[in-house]
């Protein structure tokens, strides 16, 4: 197949393949793209793949201008949940898929999309023809070529954005936003009130990374799984945990809370058939042999999990931005103002710090200080982490967690915590330390652990939404929402976006959320299923506020 004539003159080109197979066709396509001097700047490949955990998988590539999404979903449902505009469609191996996919495929096709197909049934050919695909060969099974020629007008792609942005907040969310935008050729100004990155919630000595499991594979579970798997691949691109990033992919052992929790966990293990490296249920003997401590109800082992110092992740992401990033630290509180087609950021005295058509709010719950974000239902939850001398605790080969967590030694310190408090006290306090130590003692089954430990640790504030999911996307205009009932109809502030509400999982949320936001701004194929994208949309709270005001309490 020769894509070159079709993609010539385009800024971006998207290919859909119904079967990734061994990847040889995708590798050949990327090779063709690289060798063509008249290639589009960006190449997006979306392919269905077997052998992966369910969901959409964005696979980072060495060349930031190439995007690969592998969809581990049934064919028709994958198309229904895909958000993309496809220029070239390759169909093969779908003779048993029925013909219901044709409508979804037509929805995704660009106005002059080309389809190359092998082994279609007559029913499938007829369904595709009915949706606007004009076949250029005889209607026989075997190799066929068609051009999309629907009479229904295609909604136009938005114009290419002005690739200049201001990111407010230099924690894990803002640093990831800078890197993902700079990787696409943007020029970004990073504005931070503190004198250096990662001085708020991202400043802890250790954050743990692990997936979330549930028997119903709920939306939070699917979102967390996607974020976790993307983060593992993304960190490798940055240089790896333990190398460019301070930490260790040592594994995480999550103890069952009690016998009932263990029963549910066994059911999940039976039904989900997780790959061993992703999640493995261990009964008591196996868990205790690994841990060297009591595990009376068994435990989940996440072999790819571990811990990392969030500040070192921020440093690696900012370093990857190169010369496209301008960093403005120590500016204190800032003001945000829309002037014409640009946003202006001013310091407390009114002096201009930066201006750009786009702004990303990534400063946690402090974002609600801006008038445009004031109605977002975000809460700052205090978390005190306890730092303990390593010698006071039994050695651990991995991260241990249940209601609390305990990390392996780093620089002679073990981190334990963290509390969930609704007050704004920034100083360490004895009561929070005792709470952490009580949970720690239950975790290691030793009532004498950490006796006499000195008061030491760190206080940070998590940014939490009512549904405990992040807010990723263009900010809604609450005041102009009127009687809006659908997410797509909610009015938005021009060029104003959010990466907020990461709660306790900022370490793994940051890379995928920033990638999703950058893809949305650029009108690229999105790395998540449509229903998961909607679950993260900040405008969901506009709709929920309307329903609550009418006495309706159900959610999307």
UniProtKB/TrEMBL annotation:
SUPFAM superfamilies: FAD/NAD(P)-binding domain (SSF51905). GO terms for cellular component: cytoplasm. Keywords: Cytoplasm, FAD, Flavoprotein, Methyltransferase, Multifunctional enzyme, Oxidoreductase, S-adenosyl-L-methionine, Transferase, tRNA processing. Pfam families: DAO (PF01266). GO terms for molecular function: oxidoreductase activity, acting on the CH-NH group of donors; tRNA (5-methylaminomethyl-2-thiouridylate)(34)-methyltransferase activity. GO terms for biological process: methylation; tRNA wobble uridine modification. This is FAD-dependent oxidoreductase. Residues 165-519 form the FAD dependent oxidoreductase domain. It comes from Massilia horti.
């Amino acid at each position: 197949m020769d894509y070159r004539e079709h993609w010539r003159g385009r800024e971006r080109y998207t290919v859909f393949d119904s079967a990734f197979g061994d990847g040889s066709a995708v590798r050949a396509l990327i090779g063709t793209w690289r060798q063509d001097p008249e290639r589009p700047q960006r190449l997006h490949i979306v392919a269905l793949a077997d052998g992966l955990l369910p969901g959409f998988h964005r696979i980072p590539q060495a060349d930031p201008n190439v995007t690969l999404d592998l969809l581990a979903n049934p064919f028709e449902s994958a198309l229904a949940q895909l958000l993309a505009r496809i220029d070239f469609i390759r169909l093969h191996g779908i003779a048993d898929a029925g013909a219901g996919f044709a409508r979804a495929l037509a929805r995704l096709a660009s106005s002059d999309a080309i389809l190359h197909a092998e082994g279609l049934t007559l029913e499938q050919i007829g369904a595709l023809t009915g949706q606007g695909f004009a076949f250029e060969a005889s209607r026989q099974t075997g190799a066929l070529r068609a051009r999309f020629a629907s009479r229904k007008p295609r909604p136009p792609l938005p114009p290419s954005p002005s690739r200049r942005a201001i990111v407010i907040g230099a924690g894990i969310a803002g640093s990831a936003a800078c890197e993902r935008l700079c990787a696409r050729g943007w020029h970004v100004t990073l504005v931070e009130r503190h004198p250096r990155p990662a001085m708020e919630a991202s400043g802890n000595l250790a954050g743990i990374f692990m997936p979330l499991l549930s028997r119903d594979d709920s939306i939070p579970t699917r979102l967390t799984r996607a974020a976790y798997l993307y983060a593992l691949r993304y960190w490798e691109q940055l240089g790896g945990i333990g190398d460019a990033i301070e930490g260790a992919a040592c594994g995480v052992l999550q103890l069952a809370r009690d016998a009932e929790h263990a029963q549910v966990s066994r059911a999940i293990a039976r039904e989900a058939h997780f790959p061993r490296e992703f999640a493995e249920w261990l009964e008591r003997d196996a868990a205790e042999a690994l841990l060297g401590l009591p595990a009376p109800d068994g435990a989940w082992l996440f072999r790819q999990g571990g811990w990392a110092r969030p500040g070192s992740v921020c440093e690696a992401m900012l370093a990857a931005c190169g010369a496209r990033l301008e960093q403005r630290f120590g500016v204190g509180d800032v003001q945000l103002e829309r002037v014409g087609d640009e946003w202006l950021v001013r310091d407390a005295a009114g002096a201009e710090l930066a201006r750009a058509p786009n702004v990303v709010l990534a400063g946690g719950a402090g974002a609600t200080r801006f008038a445009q974000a004031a109605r977002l239902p975000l809460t700052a939850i205090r978390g005190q982490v306890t730092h303990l001398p390593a010698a006071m605790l039994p050695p651990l080969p991995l991260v241990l967690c249940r209601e609390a967590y305990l990390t392996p030694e780093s620089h002679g310190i073990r981190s334990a915590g963290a509390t969930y408090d609704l007050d704004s006290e920034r100083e360490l306090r004895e009561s929070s330390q005792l709470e952490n130590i009580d949970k720690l003692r239950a975790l290691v089954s030793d009532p004498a652990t950490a006796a006499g430990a000195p008061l030491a640790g760190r206080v940070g504030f998590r940014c939490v939404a009512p549904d405990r999911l992040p807010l990723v996307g263009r900010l809604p205009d609450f005041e102009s929402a009127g009687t809006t009932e659908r997410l797509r109809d909610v009015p938005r502030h021009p060029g104003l976006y959010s990466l907020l509400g990461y709660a306790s999982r900022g370490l793994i949320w940051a890379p995928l959320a920033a990638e999703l936001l950058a893809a949305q701004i650029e009108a690229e194929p999105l790395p998540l299923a449509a229903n998961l994208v909607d679950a993260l949309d900040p405008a969901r709270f506009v709709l929920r506020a309307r329903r609550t005001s009418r006495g309706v309490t159900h959610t999307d």
